[in-house]
């Protein structure tokens, strides 16, 4: 049985980085069998799956050829994700970030997203998010935010979208339902309005409107001191 693959976007990211490193194989004249196999695949045009043996071999070869390069740590982090090694993923990504990487958007974006999903403090999340956005202000990559309370009606979905679009730095928001562990969940994919500074607390406050009783939503607004400490106040309050 084939192993379940991560989201296609992650596969495309990994494949894009892989395409960049094929040139290194030519430049360095790697004679290892794994490197030759990758060159053959490049010439034949056959796709290389990121959870395949070829991807693992490519990462190993690059680790030998260019072990100190932060992009190598990025690839090792991707390999850790494939193996279900969350601590390894974090370690490799943080090693790359310590080199003040700015050219690898996937690294900057994915690390910021990881901090948000892992429950890091709001200052840490905002710093990582703005570091990514400062270097890639016109990126099409999105911020994915899980919803504690999802919409029950189309009116709920419309309200959620209005609240999100009222946040200055949010350019658009796409609501998505999904199934996980037999349960229905919701998340929203947020795009950005450059070059405004990002404060993720504002997005959390916006999606939290669905936790407010329906009768009170028109007169109350949600504000968040942290990513988990939120409160309501009259919309007219300043």
Secondary structure: elements and pairs:
Elements: H1 8-28, H2 33-44, H3 53-65, H4 70-82, H5 86-97, H6 105-117, H7 122-135, E1 143-146, H8 154-165, E2 170-180, E3 183-192, H9 200-207, E4 220-224, E5 230-234
Describe the structure.
The chain is of the alpha+beta class and 238 residues long. It is 50% helix and 15% strand. The protein has nine helices and five strands, in the order H-H-H-H-H-H-H-E-H-E-E-H-E-E. It has a three-stranded antiparallel beta sheet with strand order 1-3-2. A hairpin with a 2-residue loop joins strand 2 and strand 3. Helix 4 runs antiparallel to helix 5. The N terminus is likely disordered.
Summarize the structure.
The protein has 238 residues and is of the alpha+beta class. Helix content is 50%, strand content 15%.
Question: What structural class do helix, strand and pairing data support?
Answer: alpha+beta
- End-to-end Cα distance: 58 Å
DSSP strand count? 5
Percent range for β-strand residues: 5-15%
Low-confidence stretches are: 1-8, 21-45
Helix/strand order, N-terminal first? HHHHHHHEHEEHEE
Q: Biggest sheet: strands side by side, in what order?
A: 1-3-2
- In percent, how helical is the residue content? 40-55%
| Gyration radius, rounded | 21 Å
Backbone shape: elongated
* Oligomeric state of shown chains: single chain
Distinct helical segment count: 9
């Amino acid at each position: 049985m084939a192993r379940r693959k991560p989201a296609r976007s992650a596969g495309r990211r990994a494949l894009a980085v892989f395409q960049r490193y094929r040139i290194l194989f030519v430049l360095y004249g790697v004679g290892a069998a794994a490197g030759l196999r990758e060159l053959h695949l490049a010439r034949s045009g056959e796709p290389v799956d990121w959870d395949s043996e070829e991807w693992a071999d490519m990462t190993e070869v690059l680790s030998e050829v260019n072990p100190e390069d932060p992009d190598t740590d990025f690839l090792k982090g991707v390999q850790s994700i494939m193996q279900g090694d969350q601590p390894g993923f974090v370690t490799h990504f943080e090693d790359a970030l310590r080199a003040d990487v700015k050219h690898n958007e996937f690294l900057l974006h994915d690390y910021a997203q990881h901090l948000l999903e892992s429950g890091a403090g709001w200052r840490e999340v905002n710093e990582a998010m703005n570091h990514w956005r400062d270097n890639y202000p016109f990126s099409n990559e999105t911020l994915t935010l899980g919803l504690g309370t999802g919409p029950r009606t189309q009116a709920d979905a419309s309200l959620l979208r209005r609240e999100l679009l009222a946040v200055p730095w949010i350019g658009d928001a796409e609501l998505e339902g999904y199934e996980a562990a037999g349960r229905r969940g919701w998340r929203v994919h947020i795009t950005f309005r450059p070059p405004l500074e990002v404060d993720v607390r504002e997005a959390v406050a916006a999606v939290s409107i669905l936790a407010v009783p329906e009768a009170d939503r028109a007169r109350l607004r949600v504000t968040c001191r942290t990513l988990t400490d939120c409160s309501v106040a009259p919309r007219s309050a300043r």
